[in-house]
Write a structure and sequence with these properties.
Blueprint (H helix, E strand, L loop, with lengths): L4 E6 L5 E2 L15 E7 L13 H5 L17 E2 L4 H6 L4 E2 L3 E6 L5 H11 L5 E5 L4 H11 L1 H4 L11 H4 L7 E5 L3 H11 L3 E5 L16 H18 L3 E6 L11 H5 L2 E6 L6 E9 L7 E7 L2 E4 L3 H5 L10 E8 L2 E13 L7 E4 L3 H15 L6 E7 L11 H13 L7 E4 L1 E2 L5 E2 L4 H10 L4 E5 L21 E5 L2 H9 L1
Parallel strand pairs: 6-10, 6-11, 7-8, 7-9, 9-10, 15-19, 17-18, 19-22, 22-23
Antiparallel strand pairs: 1-2, 1-3, 4-5, 11-12, 12-13, 13-14, 15-16, 16-18, 20-21
The chain binds zinc ion.
Length: 487
């Protein structure tokens, strides 16, 4: 009689231990260990993804660096340009990609839309979450004009799917056992596999329940082997828990080639697909989508949607030139400063780090003498987008003071600068791209740090400002900015 094998796993980082622990030695979290049965001991050894005799013999040998020939990986282009961008230029053969996001944010929609629109490719969409009927209904909603063969109104709106024929090679499989999935894969031989979601899969090699750390890890490992051995790209959808980790096992992030995060506010229409990790490209790319009734629409010019249309300047509103990945974006930042009705002032920031907001307020109070201590301060970044670029500091500080003094910022003005603790305006990266974007969108002036110019503003040769039509205000401190803005 074989013995049941039990192990304890940290739900937060996937650390494995033979006995229960109160505190995880790996991630220092408390009370995260759960018991999982890994092996009942009587599991027949079913092959997971069968290893062909070919691949077993093909062991790698050391190669001289000089002999390594470099060739660009073959990438499949998807009709979705934003998706190609976050992947670093298309889907790499044999890559394992994890798409994480909160439940209900639209991960399935994104992937199904992709599966339906891959031209001339056999795509297998494996769903453990929805029935075939549900997926069909979703697919019809995504591209009704193509599926029901009607000539359509509004087909231009959904730019992917509208221009290309619906992918006849899109197959749906509702299955959760990896062994059965591999059986179907062998029969179908798809060019691309989508798993929705990794938390619903289970492998008969592991006894614990689907979604547990050991199951998720084993199923991912099986998918990884399959992807590498057959050079078939595999996309895994993974649900993220509240604290932003891919349902407990962070370990997943180490196993896959690329991690994409799909984020956004469920109540807003905009979604961001962010590259968190990418073995085949830059890890700071970003794609923006608009969630419409009929699916996700690529947003190719984000600045235009993130700026609201207004006829007259209002106090507390500024525009910041930010950079997400390599992409310049102008976004609107709003501040509301009012006298606190209660003893403790309220401080709320949407789309911006609250700690950084406290820092900004402290600098404004200490260096510029604004009495903000007893004020309620609310900050908001429009579009439900979260910004991490420190270049937004200057715009936010100006918005706060504009609201506090109830004086609007002049029309068509934008900002790009980081605020230091002594009130100095620090340089930001790629300032020329930001200036160019502001000019492109018809702004009259942009405030930038003097430290962005080589040798403190004396030598303008390297960065030729005269080639811009937009007026460039070079400032070194926050007082100087306010002096120029409010006199
Ligand atoms: Zn841990």
């Amino acid at each position: 009689m074989a013995k049941t094998k039990i192990a304890y796993f940290c739900q937060s980082c996937g650390f494995e231990s033979a006995k229960w622990l109160g505190k995880c030695p790996s991630c220092q979290q408390w009370n995260t260990f759960v018991e999982e049965i890994i092996d009942k001991g009587n599991t027949p050894s079913v092959p997971t993804w069968k290893v062909t005799s070919n691949t077993q013999q093909r062991a790698n040998k050391p190669v001289q660096v000089a002999d390594i020939t470099f060739s660009e990986e073959h990438r499949m282009q998807t009709p979705d340009k934003e998706f190609n961008r976050v992947l670093g230029g298309g889907i790499v053969a044999g890559s394992l990609v994890l798409i994480g996001g909160e439940p209900g944010i639209g991960k399935s929609t994104l992937m199904l839309q992709l599966a339906l629109n891959m031209p001339n490719l056999k795509v297998l969409y494996v769903s453990g979450e929805e029935s075939e009927r549900q997926i069909k209904m979703r697919a019809e909603r995504l591209a009704p004009e193509v599926l029901s063969q009607q000539s359509s109104v509004g087909s231009q709106k959904l730019n992917i799917g509208a221009q290309s024929e619906i992918n006849k090679g899109c197959f749906i499989l509702t299955e959760t056992s990896t062994q059965n999935i591999f059986k179907q894969i062998e029969a179908l031989e798809p060019d691309l596999v989508v798993i929705d979601s990794i938390q619903t899969l289970h492998s008969s090699h592991i006894e614990s329940t689907p979604g547990s750390v050991s199951q998720v890890r084993e199923c991912t490992a099986e998918m990884l082997r399959f992807a590498k051995e057959t050079s078939t790209p595999v996309f895994l959808i993974g649900h993220i828990t509240k604290d932003g980790m891919i349902a407990g096992p962070k370990i997943l992030e180490h196993m896959v080639d690329t991690v994409l995060q799909f984020e956004g506010d469920r109540h807003h229409v905009y979604r961001i697909l962010r590259t968190v990790k990418n073995r085949f490209g830059s890890a700071s790319e970003l794609g923006i989508y608009e969630m419409l009734g009929e699916g996700l629409r690529e947003v190719s010019n984000p600045s235009e949607i993130l700026l609201s249309q207004r006829d007259e300047p209002l106090s507390g509103i500024t525009i910041s030139a930010t950079l997400e990945g390599l992409r310049p974006m102008l976004i609107e930042t709003q501040a509301l400063v009012s006298t606190s009705a209660y003893g403790t002032p309220q401080r709320t920031a949407t789309g911006f780090d609250t700690k950084r907001m406290s820092m900004l307020l402290a600098v404004l109070e200490k260096r510029c003498g604004f009495r903000l201590g007893a004020k309620d301060v609310f900050l908001n970044i429009t579009g439900g987008i979260r910004v991490e670029d420190p270049a937004i500091d200057l715009g936010l500080a100006a918005a706060i003071i504009s609201s506090h003094e109830d004086m609007p910022i002049p029309f068509k003005t934008c900002f790009a600068g980081e605020l230091g603790l002594s009130g100095e305006i620090r340089a930001v990266n790629r300032v020329e791209q930001r200036i160019a974007e502001a000019q492109k969108l018809g702004f009259n002036q942009i405030f930038i740090s003097k430290y962005n110019l080589p040798s403190g503003g004396q030598d303008k040769k390297r960065m030729d400002l005269s080639r811009y039509d937009i007026e460039i205000k070079i400032v070194s401190s926050i007082e100087e900015v306010f002096g120029q803005l409010f006199g």
